[in-house]
Design goal:
Layout: E1 19-22, E2 43-44, E3 47-48, H1 49-59, E4 64-69, H2 73-80, E5 89-94, H3 102-110, E6 119-123, E7 126-128, H4 138-141, E8 154-159, E9 170-172, E10 184-194, H5 197-200, H6 210-218, E11 222-227, E12 231-233, H7 237-247
Parallel strand pairs: 1-4, 1-6, 4-5, 8-11
Antiparallel strand pairs: 2-3, 6-10, 7-12, 8-10, 9-10
Length: 248
């Protein structure tokens, strides 16, 4: 009998999916703004960067939030608390004793707090109108199957190349799918959904995610989701100031 595909599977329920907000970075390029304030707490409009994510996630039905912290992490925990006012439940993965573990290392350390497979990861320092719930459509990512060896281990949201990254991160074809032979390129948004298998066997400690992406793409283990809406990597005071000017 032919194995059924995921086409008839309903999307995952947001309330059952864990979300990691990556908030452990130092934000040195944002100095002097980050000398006393952690980057995720810098404000766009009336709310801190990370709060925009929390309010949106809560409104979409997500409940289980993990935030990794390191630099001035105690201020993030004091400000956000347990997440009740955002309609979510926040747990913290503290990297203050080791220093920030980079993206893959931070996710690896957080695995014990994640209660879903797949799970979502969002950079706390991006500002976007992306609908996070759209990543739960299993017809797209094919990640929530009962297969022991899922065909894909993750799906990355890609955006048009910003002025500060004109060469992009990944070669993609006209549909935004990974294609090493393409002349086009797009930038990783910092938003993705992953299977735990992608991180289970990684060593603990400081570890970058970029080399892992390259390996998995070469093995056709990642899929891409193009996004053409509002998105900003708030990496400099000038970008933050521009965002706040647009909010006035």
């Amino acid at each position: 009998m032919k194995k059924p595909t995921s086409i008839n599977r309903p999307p995952l329920e947001a309330s059952k999916v864990s979300v990691i907000l990556l908030a452990a970075g130092h934000g040195k390029r944002m100095s002097p703004l980050t000398n006393t304030v952690p980057k995720p707490l810098l404000k766009v409009g009336d709310h801190a960067l990370i709060e925009h994510h929390l309010y949106k996630l809560g409104s979409l039905g997500f409940k289980n939030i993990i935030i990794n912290t390191a630099y001035l992490g105690e201020k993030i925990q004091q400000h956000l608390g347990n997440g009740e006012r955002y309609g979510v439940d926040i747990k913290y993965s503290d990297e203050s004793t080791t220093g920030a573990l980079e993206t893959a290392g931070g996710i690896k350390k957080s695995l014990s707090l994640i209660n879903s497979d797949p799970f979502m990861v969002i950079n706390a320092d991006v500002y976007t109108d992306f609908n996070f719930a759209s990543l739960l459509d299993t017809n797209l990512v094919e990640l929530a199957t009962a297969e022991k060896e899922p065909r894909k281990l993750g799906c990355l949201v890609l955006v048009e190349n910003p002025k500060h990254n004109t060469l992009g991160d990944f070669k993609v074809d006209g549909a935004g799918q990974f294609d090493s032979q393409s002349t086009g390129s797009m930038t990783f948004s910092g938003i993705a959904v992953y299977r735990k298998k992608m991180f289970n066997d990684l060593p603990a400690g400081k570890l970058a995610l970029g080399p892992i992406f390259k390996q998995l793409i070469s093995q056709d283990k990642l899929c891409a989701m193009p996004f053409y809406g509002a998105w900003t990597d708030v990496g400099t005071p000038a970008r933050l100031a521009l965002l706040n000017t647009d909010k006035k």
